[in-house]
Every structure is written in C-alpha cells, then in structure tokens.
Design goal:
75% of the residues lie in helices and 0% in strands. It is mainly α. α2 crosses α3 and α8 runs parallel beside α9. It is elongated, with a radius of gyration of 23 Å.
C-alpha cells in the first residue's frame, strides 16, 4: 500500500508560477539571494566593510580575504556584501518616490484631460529627450551627494514612467460603466480616482516597479562612479568600481571586478523579475510573445 504526500498549497502555487514564468522564478531567486546578503550583512561579513587595514593593502584574493583587499586595505568581500544594503536602500525608496509622485499625476491627467494633461505630457516628453543621467548628475552635484538627494533625484526622474503607465490605463477606464455609475451617484472626483479607478489602473505601474528598481540601482552606481553619488568609504558598488578602475592597469583586478559582478547580477535579477511580473500581470503581453 503506497501513500502519496500532498504538497502544501503554497508549494504548488510557487511551482505553477515557476512553470508559467521561468524568468520570474530566476529573478526572484537572484533578488532573494541579494536580500539575504543585505539582511545578514552584519553577521556574515568577516571584516568591518569601512575599516582600513594598512598592513593588507591590495592583498590578492585568498586566505582570510576571499576577494582580496582594496587600496585602503578594506576587505572587498565584506564591502560587496554590505553594498547590497545600499543598493536596496536606494532602489526601494526611489521607486516609492516615483510611485507617490507619478501615480496621482497620471490619475488626474488621464481623468481630466484638457490643457493640464497636454502640458504634463509635453513636460514628460522633454524629460525623456534630455538624458536622465546628465540631469541626475547636474542635480545631485548641485544639491550634494547625500543618500537623500540621490533617492529624491532618481525617484522624481522616474515618476513620469509611472505617470504615463497609469494615465494610459485611466484613459481606457474613464468611460467604463462602473466609472460612469460612480459619477452618476454623485461621488467626488477624489473618490472616483482613488477608490474606483486606481485599483484597476495600478496593475501596470506595479509591474514596472522591479524594472525601475534596476534602473535606480544602475543610475546610483553610475553617479557614484562619476564621483557625485554616495562617497567612499561607504561600501557602494559604483564607488568601489571607480576605485578598482585605477588598479586594473597595474594588475589588481579584484578591486573593481567583484563589485562589478555584483552590480550586473542584481540589475539582471531585477530586470528578470520585472519581465516576469509583466508576463503574469499583463495577459496581452504574454499572448503577444507566444
């Protein structure tokens, strides 16, 4: 007599999602790995990521220093792990700022239309034409290279993406039967927007969050690499790559290569996560790719 053990419902659900979107599963796996690194960084880093050790400057990978040390004697392995905290600490707040600024604007412009909608869309078009990295570079350089300034600049530069996505959904929904019924019932505009339309228009914006988080990580690293973002000795991957670039010509490749690999993997994981979310949340996109 053989007995079958039923898998828990959440295990079957995860397995079903993985089969439907292997890209999503791979992205989740990568990002969960970096999230574990960020959360456990104080306990799994063998050395203080900001403590210089003058006796072990530019030590090659091996022994106590798995990824070697940098030009200040700091352990590269510890700094790569701690850098995951800064990557999430910039990406998550920047996406939230973009959502909080872009979603209400997209709701209002899509619902009201008229001259305000035209002005807002032309302003968004101007922002898209102007290179985002140049604009971020100028604003952060003028405001100062603090974490708050970097987050706010990246978030506000990203808000037009969320505004456009939500606006497109609102344009398709504003003449729906349930919206017209809400208007006929005498609901105020704010209630129609945030109670009736927003839950139905937010899906596209939520599918964009992981992709925009990848953009935020990439832009913050670029700013740090150019010297106007997060400053050393903070273990930020872009700043570490900048320092490592100075030593590539003399053969100390590990200083810049390991944080570069971490940056590539995290951006790849976020992009795969975002692509998988769009497949799951947008049936039309999934059908078009078949």
């Amino acid at each position: 007599m053989s007995a079958t053990i039923a898998s828990p419902r959440w295990v079957r659900r995860i397995g079903g999602i993985s089969r439907r979107s292997p890209t999503l599963a791979a992205g989740v796996f990568i990002i969960l790995g970096f999230a574990a690194m960020a959360l456990l960084a104080p306990w799994i880093t063998p050395f203080d990521p900001e403590l210089a050790q003058s006796r072990n400057v530019l030590a090659a990978p091996g022994g106590a220093h798995l990824m070697g040390t940098d030009g200040n004697g700091m352990d590269v392995f510890s700094r790569v792990i701690a850098g995951a905290r800064w990557a999430f600490g910039i990406a998550i707040p920047a996406v939230l700022v973009g959502l909080l600024a872009g979603v209400p604007l997209g709701l209002y412009t899509g619902y009201r239309g008229g001259w305000f909608d035209e002005i807002a869309m032309r302003f968004f078009d101007a922002l898209r034409v102007f290179p985002s990295i140049i604009l971020a570079l100028a604003v952060v350089a003028a405001a100062g290279p603090s974490l708050l300034n970097v987050v706010l600049v990246i978030g506000f530069l990203d808000s037009p993406v969320f505004a456009r996505v939500v606006r497109a959904e609102v344009l398709a929904l504003r003449h729906s039967t349930f919206v017209e019924s809400a208007v006929s019932a005498g609901n105020p505009t704010w209630r129609i927007l945030f109670v009736h339309i927003l839950p139905n228009a937010l899906q596209g914006a939520m599918a964009q969050t992981a992709v925009r988080a990848a953009w935020a990580v990439r832009i913050s690293a670029t700013l740090a690499f150019l010297g106007v973002g997060i400053q050393p000795p903070t273990p930020e991957w872009g700043a570490m790559i900048r320092q490592g670039a100075e030593y590539l010509v003399t053969g100390q490749w590990w200083v810049g290569v390991f944080p570069g690999i971490a940056l590539i993997l995290m951006v790849l994981g976020l992009n795969m996560l975002g692509d998988g979310l769009q497949d799951l949340l947008d049936p039309r996109r999934k059908a078009a790719t078949r």
